[in-house]
Amino acid sequence: MTNVFNPPARTLMGPGPSDVNPRILSALARPTIGHLDPQFVAMMDEVKSMLQYAFQTKNALTLPVSAPGSAGMEACFVNLLEPGDKAIVCQNGVFGGRMKENVERCGATAILVQDDWGKPVDPAKLAQALADNPDAKVVAFVHAETSTGVRSDAATLCKLAAENNCLSIVDAVTSVGGIEVAIDAWGADAVYSGTQKCLSCVPGISPVSFSERAIAAIKNRTTKVQSWFLDMELVMGYWGQNTQRAYHHTAPVNTLYALHESLLILEQEGLEAAWARHDLNHKALAAGLEAMGLSFVVDEEYRLPQLNVVTIPDGIDEAAIRQSLLQDYNLEIGAGLGPLAGKVWRIGLMGYACNQTNVLFCLASLEQVLREQGADIVAGSGQSAARAYYQSQQ
Fold first, then answer.
1. Banded pLDDT at 241 (limits 50, 70, 90)
2. Which residues belong to any copy of the Aminotransferase class V domain (predicted)?
């Protein structure tokens, strides 16, 4: 007979999902009401307003797509691209490759601007691609590349796109709540994110935001959006400003309660404070990891504080380390992807999981399992270095 599923209590320090704040888990258990209930509609408006705060935008078309971040990505591409269009895609990791897939599935042509994994997108390469392709309609790039832990210069890349009469599509899945995201200041046209990273919400929702330029492009399409579910003109009938909402789909009511609570927590902490907390704990973790002899893939200037990608020491069975951490310490860290598979670990410090207790716990646990495999690490060196950093910031 199948039994009730009771998951173990883990500390999630991988690339996502992140630990969920107990306030958010509690919100999930609130009574379910109808997705057209006047009380729910009022909450929807609050979610939109708080998303505008998190994205730092006044875009009217800012809403949560009722599906994970990959659906938010697809929503941006299918609404802005038509068959025969050309899009310049900047690829410096796994998720730039997924952008390319979306372009091609829209019947458009993808022009790749490639940089090494672990390096930010090179604006000079994008400028050259724009000069070589004056008929391009879209520039797409990943702001915070989850596969490598690198941050690209979104403001510069969006400016280049605008100067060349291109719409910009920005992947901010790992960005929002962890580092600055400033849609209006960047001049970004379509941005998508996810709830399961630095917002510390449950997976399954993708916040998106479209500029007035993007809305105009959607309204001036000559072909239907290939996805009925993700067609923004249809979705806005449900997420619009009036109280008479048109039925589009049954929204994930309780999951949206959770997102509302998540955004409220972010608003109460304040964006700048959240960014500063991620930076503080990242630098303490980095001090500890480097004291243990581990090195980062990404140069310090471009590192994501919320996603730390470190090289695996010679002679270490990386999968066995992750298995030991999970089995013996209930601690999850992530493996490498693509050409970095087997070469790196991805250690997340996202949202609710980004705190001093987790930093010290991760360092102590990782040190122990590494020493058990024969790594030459001075006992307590990681925690000592992290503690020293925290003390220096008091």
1. low
2. 32-336
